[in-house]
Write a structure and sequence with these properties.
It is found in: Cell inner membrane. This is Glutathione import ATP-binding protein GsiA. The protein is α/β, with parallel strands linked by helices. It contains 21 helices and 23 strands. The strands form 4 sheets. It has an 8-stranded mixed β-sheet, with helices on both faces. A hairpin with a 2-residue loop joins strand 1 and strand 2 (21-34). The protein is globular, with a radius of gyration of 26 Å. The two termini are 42 Å apart. The mean pLDDT is 88.
Length: 606
């Protein structure tokens, strides 16, 4: 395979026109992509990485941007040299999809909901390659097999809403590959996916690149994915390229301070080996700080026994209940004061349902939940309201959980006003103290949620959760939507607060590296049941259940010398959690492997 350049971007500058004058999205970026290589563009939100890819596709004009300077040379099959910055949109239409394919971040918005999978896959083939209907159908079927979609003949006739997230993303990849493009641009293609599906899709893209010789421009903020995929890495910061090098150079010998800070903030799976207790991360610039492990206590705070939550599936003319979704099935665990228990698993495994059932945001079908000496399930609405002072929740999306019309000081004060715990000057002083605790400047108190970044909003949500001095905080994917460096700061903040205030966390997440960093104990969930639970070191270093083992194998590690191969990944498709009305599941039985380390012996379906 000849090493020749497919795309060569020189001094690209992109501007957006706003009422206050032009805003620069990309200031000055140059890099090349060669045949058969993967170039990863990394950086945090707002660094200009997606803007670069949209400029290359010339889709930036449709988003209000203009290419204000620079050249973008592209070499199609016939060896010509086209400067995409100067190309007419009519010619771009023949290049887009045909010579340059794009995989977008959100598969549901990239697919048209009113057309079948077949129609969307064959459209480009008939348009660009002049195929007949029959030829295009045969090629579409071949593409679905290539991206390993089960029962491809059936899938062709389906619509996007009938497929799962991972399946939809595979269809988007198949569409991007349909015309065998010279260059494939993948913009955060696995951000919205589970660990196991992400691992399969990364392995799939790597295999297709090797087989077809396509050049890949891969945009991501996940350093573990970069370590898994990249040949070369371009690091972007505030619209500029700050560093470029091979994947080994960037990970092992970073030169720029921003790259060093980014890598220091990445939790690496396996870092906590030999450390029985969680401890905050050592970030750049904090080398001299003493890091203390968080001990916790042995006094139980939350005891959950046999918690079962089901949702009715209605159907037929009279909207009768025809089946049940078994979201949480016979879940039991104990959380000690001052400790963190993490629930991990993939989307739909029931971990968020468990968190919400404990607070009775959804009503469980059966089971008991004890917080201290109170039985939460048996409380009436007045007592439940009082009990909720001790229990708070931090949600995944801080923008959705904050009120856009209230300033931040009022939002943090609201729980204290509701429960009448503080008034007047005392209330004001406590709000100021909470802003100090989450390391936000007091000048932010007059601001509104839209004036803050994602990480700052999540800090406000944490301050509000702390307002009533709760004993238990349920954090539902509280850091998964944040950038790497912000995520590290928020995780450290939560751990400092735990050490200072003796908080107990039920930490719900699918990010295994973060879970390893923060947890005393870990419960692995699959199809509504806890399949394995125990001290974090035992579960991570000696996994016993086949599902836990598969999950651990799938997690990419932020080290280019520990890449996963496709043969490591052999996942079973997850069966449906919907069962008919007369279905009676078996109770959960466990065997003890070592002290406190329990593994499910009931058939979990995996």
């Amino acid at each position: 395979m000849l090493d020749h350049t497919i795309a060569d971007i020189r001094n690209l500058r992109v501007e957006f026109q706003t009422k206050d004058g032009p805003v620069v999205g990309v200031e000055d970026v140059s890099f090349t992509v060669n045949a058969g290589e993967t170039v990863c563009i990394v950086g945090e939100s707002g660094s200009g990485k997606s803007v670069s890819s949209l400029a290359l596709m010339r889709l930036i004009e449709y988003g209000g941007g203009t290419i204000a300077g620079g050249e973008m040379h592209f070499h199609p099959q016939d060896g010509a040299d086209i400067d995409l910055a100067q190309t007419e949109q009519s010619l771009m239409r023949t290049i887009r999809g045909n010579q340059i394919g794009m995989i977008f971040q959100e598969p549901m918005t990239a697919l048209n909901p009113v057309f079948t999978v077949e129609r969307q896959l064959t459209e480009g083939l008939r348009l660009h390659k002049g195929m007949t209907k029959k030829q295009a159908q045969a090629r579409a079927l071949e593409l679905l097999r290539q991206v390993r979609i089960p029962e491809p003949e059936r899938r062709l006739a389906q619509y996007p809403h009938e497929l799962s997230g991972g399946m939809r993303q595979r269809v988007v990849i198949a569409m991007a590959l349909a015309c065998a493009p010279r260059l494939l641009i993948a913009d955060e293609p696995t951000t919205a996916l589970d660990v196991t599906i992400q691992a399969e899709i990364l392995a799939l893209m790597d295999r297709l690149k090797r087989e077809t010789g396509t050049a890949v421009m891969f945009i991501t903020h996940d350093m573990a994915v970069v370590a898994q995929m990249a040949d070369r890495v371009v690091v972007m910061f505030r619209g500029n390229k700050v560093e470029e090098g091979t994947v080994e150079e960037i990970f092992e010998r970073p030169q720029h301070n921003y790259t060093k800070a980014l890598l220091a903030a990445v939790p690496k799976l396996g870092e906590m080996r030999g450390k029985p207790l969680p401890e905050p991360m050592r970030l750049l610039g904090q080398e001299d700080q003493e890091i203390k492990p968080i001990v916790g206590t042995d006094a139980p705070l939350l005891t959950v026994k046999g918690l079962t939550t089901r949702f009715a599936v209605k159907g037929g003319f009279f909207r009768r209940t025809v089946a049940n979704v078994h979201a949480a099935e016979d879940v039991s665990f104990t959380l000690m004061k001052g400790r963190t228990l993490s629930l991990v698993g993939e989307s739909g495994c029931g971990k968020s349902t468990v968190g919400r059932s404990i607070l009775r945001l959804v009503e469980p079908l059966s089971g008991s939940v004890q917080v201290g000496d109170r039985d939460i399930i048996g409380l009436d609405s007045g007592d439940l309201r009082r009990a909720r002072q001790d229990m708070q929740m931090i949600f995944q999306d801080p923008f959705a959980s904050l009120n856009p019309q209230m300033n931040l000081a009022d939002q943090v004060a609201e729980p204290m006003r509701n429960f009448d715990t503080h008034r007047g000057a005392e209330l004001q002083a406590r709000v100021e103290m909470l802003f100090d605790r989450v390391e936000l400047p007091r000048s932010f108190m007059r601001r509104y949620p839209h004036e803050l970044s994602g990480g700052q909003r999540q800090r406000v949500a944490i301050a509000r959760a702390l307002a009533l001095n709760p004993k238990l905080i349920i954090a539902d994917e509280a850091v998964s939507a944040l950038d790497v460096s912000v995520q590290a700061q928020v995780v450290n903040l939560m751990m400092e607060l735990q050490a200072d205030l003796g908080l107990s966390y039920l930490f719900i997440s699918h990010d295994m590296a973060v879970v390893e960093r923060v947890s005393h104990d870990v419960g692995v969930m699959y199809l509504g049941r806890i399949v394995e639970i125990g001290p974090r070191a035992a579960v991570f270093e000696n996994p016993q259940h086949p599902y836990t083992k598969a999950l651990m194998k799938a997690v990419p590690i932020a080290d280019p010398r520990k890449r996963k191969s496709e043969k490591d990944l052999n996942f079973k498709p997850i069966p449906s959690p919907i069962h008919p009305m007369d279905y009676a599941p078996e109770p959960s039985h466990y065997r003890e492997v070592s002290a406190g380390h329990m593994v499910l012996t009931t058939d979990s379906g995996y």
